[in-house]
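note to self: dont lose this again. the chain is below, predicted strucutre after it. 333 aa total, dont forget to put it in the shared folder this time
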Amino acid sequence: MDAIAQLALYEADALLAIAAATDAAGIEAVRIQFLGKKQGRLKDLQALLGQVTPEERPVLGKKFNEVKDRVTAVVEERQATLAQPAAIVDGVDVTLPGTPFSMGHRHPISQTIEEFKSIMVRLGFDPVDGPEIEDEFHNFEALNIPLDHPARDPRDNFYLATAERTFGGPLLMRSQTSTVQIRVMQNTQPPVRIVSIGRVYRPDEMDDTHSCMFHQMEGLMVDKHVTMADLKTVLRLFAQAYLGKDVVIRFRPSFFPFTEPSVEVDMKWGDRWLEIGGAGMVDPNVLKAVGYNPDEVSGFAFGLGVERFCMRRHNNTDIRQFYASDVRFLSQF
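---
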């Protein structure tokens, strides 16, 4: 092999070895191997200069210096790269500790809803869902709320302005989850044991315990020989399961068009009573509206405010905090 070919092979081997070096010690070993003055392949190549004719010596000497300079430059560049504190790629130090992601968690109301479902499933009730936009039949008529009832006043409901023109009849944002029990009973024969949890809408004045949008859990049980005692037992068991054995609840006589008799349900919170929902025995007219025979079956229904239970559990006295999107508040749950 002539001298020019040996120089080309030297350069190729050196470049491969430089690229394979992964740390400072490795590139130093490569430098000694290919550029060392006392030993190594460069010294062997220098010996070739004394073996050529005087006429060939200038050409070979020039080629030798060019190869040496190129290998030296590549070695120095690799040394500088490996001497840095870490591999820097596009200006980013990939060895620095990463910025940890701030992991979110479920909203306290969502947590409460899931726990409500879990408790009610253990009590034998099946969770169901229904639409938030309702027609007047399901929101009023089937619930024994006639056309002239004050509960249907447009000032007390969120009617959709374009619904009648678009759908041929008034539609509104549901004011109660009782609409779901109508839909279930229309398609299910007794026995029925269901709960529906979701948003409801009422134009209430916002304060520490009221909101124009809140969550309600609707419960329904229809079977033979269902009594008010069954209703009170279920509500007490539920309240104790969520709030603890020491919770105190009471039932006050009331009136709802879709239950008879009807009760308001309150719970003790410190030195005051807080209303948490309404309940009662399903009115026979409601049973008739869905095709049930009130002489054969009876049932109870209840609607409980999810937010108020959550407030009581976490000792939060203002319902508005749940929807203020204040991370400082929500991060506590």
